[in-house]
Amino acid sequence: MTGSNIRRSMPLFPIGPVMQLTELTARQIRYYEEHQLISPARTDGNRRMFSLNDIDTLLEVKDLIDQGVNMAGIKHLFALKNQETNPILKAEKTERELSNDDVRRLLRKEIVQAGRFNLPTSNPGNMNRFFH
């Protein structure tokens, strides 16, 4: 881990400032923790302490929710992201693997097309489970 990564991983922020920075409620933040999207550190008094990486993740989750992606879709995107950063899983990739940007672009396209034509997505068996 580089010095920058270590600093970004340091648990520095209690939940109050995180709520202000992300415009999320404490309940939303706890909900995302329950779904293991973030893992804040705990103090001896059991208070959550968040890192810059946790805040980035919360902002990313918030953006995805705003785009209409539900929790199952978010977990799927995060799993893909973890595959890209895990060297063991990276070696097992197939020839044509989509990047996170490709997946996001496809999800946005599906949302726009579904809204534009007032129809279900073009691949309902595959994509509908990711949207509200």
From TrEMBL:
<keyword id="KW-0805">Transcription regulation</keyword>
<feature type="domain" description="HTH merR-type">
    <location>
        <begin position="12"/>
        <end position="80"/>
    </location>
</feature>
<dbReference type="GO" id="GO:0003677">
    <property type="term" value="F:DNA binding"/>
</dbReference>
<dbReference type="GO" id="GO:0003700">
    <property type="term" value="F:DNA-binding transcription factor activity"/>
</dbReference>
<keyword id="KW-0678">Repressor</keyword>
<dbReference type="InterPro" id="IPR009061">
    <property type="entry name" value="DNA-bd_dom_put_sf"/>
</dbReference>
<keyword id="KW-0804">Transcription</keyword>
<dbReference type="InterPro" id="IPR000551">
    <property type="entry name" value="MerR-type_HTH_dom"/>
</dbReference>
<keyword id="KW-0238">DNA-binding</keyword>
<dbReference type="InterPro" id="IPR047057">
    <property type="entry name" value="MerR_fam"/>
</dbReference>
<protein>
    <submittedName>
        <fullName>MerR family transcriptional regulator</fullName>
    </submittedName>
</protein>
<dbReference type="Pfam" id="PF13411">
    <property type="entry name" value="MerR_1"/>
</dbReference>
